[in-house]
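quick one, 755 residues, struct below
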Amino acid sequence: MPERFIILLATIGFAFSGAVLWSGDASAGSSLEQVGLAAAVASVVSLGLLALRAVLTMLSTTRRRNIFDCLMSSNPASTVLVDAQGRTLLTNDRYDSGHHLPRCAQLSDALTAICSDPLGEIKKLHQQCDLNGHTEEMFTSGPVPLLITVRKTRRGVYLWEIADAPLYMAHTTHANNVPVASFDTDGALLSRNDAFNLAFPLNVETLTDLSGAIANRTDQRVPLTTIHGKRLFDLKFLQGEKGAGTVFCFEREFQKTQPALPDAEIFEKLTVPLMWLNLNGTVLAINPAARAILRGGVNVGSKLNTAFTSATRPLDEWLEEARDSGRSPQPEFLSRQGQGDELILQAMLTRLGEEAPYLICTLTDVTELKSLEAQFVQSQKMQAIGQLAGGVAHDFNNLLTAISGHCDLLLMRHDPTDPEHADLMQIHQNTNRAASLVGQLLAFSRKQNLQFQSLNLRDTLADLGHLLNRLVGEKVELSLDHGSDLNLVRADKRQLEQVMMNLVVNARDAMPDGGVVQIKTSGLNLVTPTEMGSAVVQPGEYVKISVIDQGEGIAPELIDKVFEPFVTTKRTGEGTGLGLSTVYGIVKQSGGYIFVDSVLGKGTKFDVILPAPPVRAAVVEPVEEEPPKTEFRPSDGVVLLVEDEAPVRAFASRALQLKGYKVIEADCAEMALDLLQDEDMHVDVFVTDVIMPGLDGPTWVTQAKAIRPDVRVIFVSGYAEDSFSSQKDAFENAAFLPKPFSLKDLTRTVDSVLS
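---
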């Protein structure tokens, strides 16, 4: 009975009974009172029935709600019960969380996130449900493709299930074996399950790549190219909105099982680091030996080309070669991505038979080997740069000798009062500056002239302290801290001072706002070979000098290059980039070591380690008196000048002639030997360059000494004397004159040899 009719009857009954009891008419008698009482009773009964119906309805609704919650609470899809107009009646927790669609009172409002006409879409799906009982549609316009399933219930309401398309694929029948992929309106593949990745190559990115015959997107049977070759498939399409959807690839001759992974027990016990991959490079298994060297960062399910990089070629190309060529490709060196520590692996790929859809990857940790290789390459590069710098310096010294020498000749003809004298002095001074610059290149190449002596660092640094304090300026404080166990060091005092000045100036420049530059010295006694930085310091007595600042620090990418020429951390125009390369060359030529340690924003420390051999007592030997020498006059001297550089030869010849010597010139060693064949030609001294085309200086002088044993020798070179010391020592009383030399240097050396 309708609720409204029951309420109407109850109202009429109560009104009638009330009217009868109020009137109190005696003529009506007891019969009228009985009728009013009956009406009241009927009204009470009607209201009771109405209340009972309301209670039963509430219990039924609660029961249905409990049943709905019980059935849908475990459903991974967002589930909502709506009426024919799309009004929301009941929802599950997944829908309430807004995981798939925004939570709205009207389903049409929620559907605006994935379709342009939500009311039309609801009407269409409900009409399809009225005909078929249920319907499905894919929506791909949202962030994630969604599959919506709609079912009609017996009471005329509709049950909507909204799920991720990949999630639907995972729960579809044969999901572990059936390749499934979702695609957009243009046919581009949006997502693919593992079975699809195992079956088809990585370059399948669209439906057309899969097969040109399925462009019409209808269910059909077609041959498809898999990584195992041509196979026949039944394709089932689940159509979505505006041509998007999902394709299911059922192999016609379905293989019962895929080739199995290796025996787990054997795989785990192998001591060789191994990874098991599918043909697309996805990691399927890692044994304990491989996990030990990988140290995390690579897990089952990772892609090889995202976890590692190779400097030689793309890893997809490497995988393709292993997959398609039927042979193992060349090993690759893989660098791990996204990890703090460096890891370099040598990896080899092997496919187990042409039909096997898996690859075995053998790993070897070569991080330390690659580090040593990088250090060796750096050492070779530094040596090559040193040779280049030495060669350039030698050629520049020839040019500077000619410029400086001819400038000296001009100065001899111009008094200080001459207007041109000042210009000549400018040329002379700049030539000396250029010679100093070339000297820095020679220092780096370890081919400069050093005069070794035993030095007390306390005294040396004390003498240098006044100059260093002026160099650092007012903002920077200089601090000296000497150890108590300092031995004498073997070094060139002038060059050691150059080392300290360069390091202190660099420390000052690293602290533009001021600070403290610390110079610390300490003794170092090594009993066994000790690894320091990238070098191994041999046993012996050493002294360590540390120069420490609290400046800006050196960038990590420059830390291995700071000792190379023309590499500077300063701004353009503020440095030549030769300061540290000069320091490096001086320290190395002195038999020492230099190391750098720096942290950005915290400062830099340079450690210079110099040998400190024990000082031996000098042995005093009796000195025999030499017979008095006869006075030698330059006009009596004959000089054979052998120099391949014409400007240097011209200057040297004129300088010696001005001094009164007779000069015989030769532009090569072969010409000099030909001149010496004349027995009537008298020669007192050979002045020869060391490095020349053809025969070098020591070689031709050796041949000349066989026929002219009494002739004195002066070797001239742009390189350091110790670069050919073993050859020079073969000649008694041979002198050495380094380039660039001045007019006075040349004539003084010749005079001293002949006097």
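Residues 133 and 526 are 91 Å apart (CA to CA).
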